[in-house]
Amino acid sequence: MKKLLALLALLTLAASISITSWQSKPANFEAQAQRATGAIFVMGRFNCSGTEIGKTPTGNGVFLTARHCVADPETDKINEQMEVTFSANEGGPFYLARPLAISSTDDLALLELYNGADIPMVPIKAQWSLRSGDSIFNVSYPLGTGKEVFHGEFIQGRFPLLPADYLSQMPTWTYSMPVNLTIAHGSSGSGVFSSKERALIGVAVGTFEEGSYNLAIPSDRVLYFLNHLQDSTVEKFKQAHPEHVAPDEWPF
Q1: 223 burial via Cβ count (<10 Å: 0-12, 13-18, 19+)
Q2: What secondary structure does DSSP assign to 163-197, as a single string?
Q3: Residue 213 belongs to a domain with what CATH number?
Q4: Assigned domain for 251 exists
C-alpha cells in the first residue's frame, strides 16, 4: 500500500502540471507520443496498445491502457502474463508487465513495466479546453500491422447519448467521448493526443462499424482514475470478482 500511495502522489503531481517531466523533451510532440506508445502481448500474442505516462518510485514504467485489455470484459479474469514492446514492428525488446490498478468505473487500467527506464512518458490534460474540429491524433497497433499514426478531429468531451446495447455490454463506456479518428481492433488502450495541448486527452476503447466515429475514454476520467488509485488496486478488483481471481504470485 505504501508503494501504491507513493505512486499515486507521483502520478497526481505529473498529471497536474502542464509540461512533461521527460527532461529531453523533443520539439515534435507527435514523435514523443510515438516513442511512448507500446503494444501489449498476452501469452505471446498481440492484444492491445497503450501509453507510458509515468514511472514508479523504483523506476519502473507506468503504462496506461484499457481495462478490457487487462481484465476480460465477460469474465473479469485478469490476464496473467503480459509483455509490452515499443518497437515499430512489434519486435523486441519486450518488458514484463503486471496489472497495477484497474478502474471500477471506466475502461482504464495501469500496468507496471519492469525496466525500460529510457522510455519517454507523456503528460495528461483534461479535454475540456479542446473545441469541435481541433486536430487530434492516435498512435496504436491496429490489427497487428505495426505502430501507426492516425490524424482526426475532436468532437466533444462526452457522448450526449450512447445506444443502450453498447452500455449494456460495456458499462465502463458510460463516460466515453466521440472522436472522428481511425482506430481498429488492436488500437484499444492507445492514447488520443493533442499536439496543441502537448498531452494525452483520451484513451481509445471502441469503434463503430459504420465508420471512423469512434469512442475514447476522455482524459478527465483518466485523471479521476489516477486520483482514486487507492480504490483501484488489483487486490480490491479480485475481491469484487472472487470467482475469477488472478494468482497471488506473478511470474517475474
Answers
A1: middle
A2: -HHHHHH-GGGTT-EEEE----TT-TT-EEEETTT
A3: 2.40.10.10
A4: no
Nearest-angstrom CA–CA distance, 69 and 217: 14
3-state secondary structure of 2: helix
Is 15 a domain residue? Answer: yes
The predicted pLDDT at position 234 comes to 87
Please answer whether residues 179 and 132 qualify as being in contact, where contact means their C-beta atoms are separated by less than 8 angstroms.
no
Phi, psi of 9 (to 5 degrees): -65, -40
Rounded CA-CA distance 160/173 in Å is 12
Q: Are residues 35 and 17 in the same domain?
A: yes
Q: How far apart are CA 207 and CA 191, in angstroms?
A: 14
CA distance 179 to 158: 10
Residue 59 in any domain: the answer is yes
pTM (2 d.p.): 0.86
What are the residue ranges in the chain where pLDDT is below 70?
1-27, 116-117, 210-212, 241-252
Number of domains in the chain: 2
- Per-residue model confidence as pLDDT tens digits over 235-251: 888 777 665 544 444 33
Q: How far is CA 238 from the centre of its chain?
A: 20
Residues 132 and 58 in one domain: no
| 29 lies in the same domain as 112 | yes
Whether 91 and 6 share a structural domain:
yes
Please write the tens of the pLDDT for every residue from 156-212.
999 888 878 878 888 999 999 999 999 889 999 999 999 999 999 999 999 877 666
